[in-house]
Amino acid sequence: MSFQTFLQHLVNGISLGSLYALLAIGYTMVYGILRLINFAHGDIFMLATYIAFYSITTFLLPWWAAFLIAIILTALLGILLERAAYRPLRNSPRISIMISAIGASFLIENLAIVFFGGRPKAFPIAPIFSKIVRIGDVSISIVTIIIPIITVIALVILNFIVNKTKTGMAMRAVSKDYDAAKLMGININHIISFTFGTGSALAAIGGIMWALKYPQLIPLMGVMPGLKFFIAAVIGGIGNIKGAVLGGFILGLGEIAIVASSPALSGYRDAFAFILLIIILLVKPTGLLGQNSAEKV
Amino acid sequence: MLTINNLSVHYGGIHALKGINLEVPQNKIVTLIGANGAGKSSTLKSIMGLAKASGGSIKFNGEDIVNKPTTNMVSKGLVLVPEGRRVFSNLTVEENLFLGAYLRKNKEEITKDLNWVYELFPRLKERVWQKAGTLSGGEQQMLAVGRALMSKPKLLMMDEPSLGLAPLIVKDIFGIIKEIHRNGMTILLIEQNAKAALEVADYGYVLETGSITLEGPGKELMVNDEVQKAYLGEHK
Fold it and tell me: How many CA atoms lie within 13 A of A250 on its CB side?
């Protein structure tokens, strides 16, 4: 493999890894605070792309306005999802809330088929995003470069919110101990809504960039990627934001490496994610950066 | 300040509190002693709105507060140091203290109280950047008390602050309780360590299987025969 080809693959891998990382964070944040795998997260991701699609094609908005609206509406949908499907079951056994998550996922997918139609739609790409840049002998589409940049910006903002703001402090407190957090005067419901809003906004950012990279929308487009985002979160250690980023990049770079090493293996691209998951669960079930759940009493 | 009338709490089929009456006057230390499972923690939890009361009333400065959300209690000045400390082990000591002041807005006053807490607990000041989970049991208890003080309580409730601590540390903790009280704090203290609790308390209640069986000034309870037998070990 020539150095150019290697660079090309590397850039692609980083780009794909960024998307996985952004989406894995949504899984990990919700898990951290509710101990729930939000199976509908991949469908939230799908909804974001359709909102952007209709904003551009039906409402004829400029791309940036459409993206902004998609991010805001998706955040609100995430909050709505928690209110409707998870909050009423807050004190039920964990299995009930998990079943509810699976149900919410199927509901969103099927409503999407009814309202958006089952036929694929082509995502309209503004000319700015379809440019190709050449760096030396490497030619890269501008989207591939933008994705990691936006991801880094989003991660810096998220890191600031979680570690430096009062709300972030409350989020970390709630994820550790509900009752003790209540005793501080923290309104648990607000913090959980905020968590879903943030996770869903990141899913929207990831979804829009996904659509720019793979511009074909179908109502079930969140299913397979959704599983991979989840796997990325588990590899890194679910509940840990840094772990989700790490898991995302490992998965993205790994997939591209498989495809690059031999075209014959490219059909096994999806299998790679699952094999990696099995290995992690066998070797280090808490994930790479996951903490052992044993606690000092 | 706090008046509890005929308070009942049920957990499923279990009747944990069977109509208790309790009064905490301003600027006093009142203690509630009793064995495991007598309903001491249930009393505090229902005051804070963490456990649902199935009957009776709880009045704070004349206002009925029974079964209101916990966050309202904290903003009214009812603050609980929970059993088992429950510090946020994944947060630093300073973050824990700032979370105590979560509902407060006045930055100057928060800083003033933070300095006061560091004066009370110099050990915490040495460990500001340490994760709370790395502290020893006694330090965690200090942090839990300091965190509660950061909420600017009018009534400070403590659930077994001596639980699982070495006797010397227990002495420290009770010293601190007296010190806080001298600053004008009203305290409702729950303890299994009846001797230490009755020594500092102005008034005491004895709780047995969900009912109050005895009450009286701390000093009187100390010499009461039944209390001696049940909680202090029989003296010859």
Answer: 24
Q: How confident is the model at residue A293 (pLDDT cuts 50, 70, 90)?
A: low
State how far the Cα of A147 lies from the Cα of B212, in Å rounded to an integer: 66
Position A296 scores a pLDDT of 43
Of residues A218, A225, A229, the one with CA closest to residue A112 = A218
Q: How many CB atoms lie within 10 A of CB A48?
A: 30
**Does A288 fall in a domain?**
no
Q: Report the domain count for chain A.
A: 1
Tokens of A50: 């359709």
Determine the pLDDT at residue B228: 82
Question: Per the domain annotation, does A297 fall within a domain?
Answer: no
ipTM (interface pTM): 0.91
| Chain B residues with beta carbon closer than 8 angstroms to that of A170 | 99, 102
Domain around B58: 1-21+39-78
Question: Does residue B225 lie within any of the structural domains?
Answer: no
Cβ-Cβ contacts under 8 Å, B74 against chain A: 183-185
E-strand spans in A10-165? 121-122, 132-135, 138-141
Residue A166 touches chain B, beta carbons under 8 Å: yes
How many folded domains does chain B comprise?
2
**Whether B88 and B60 share a structural domain:** no
The pair of structure tokens assigned to A31 is 């898990």
* Residues of the domain holding A120: 3-283
Strand spans (E) along chain A: 121-122, 132-135, 138-141, 216-217
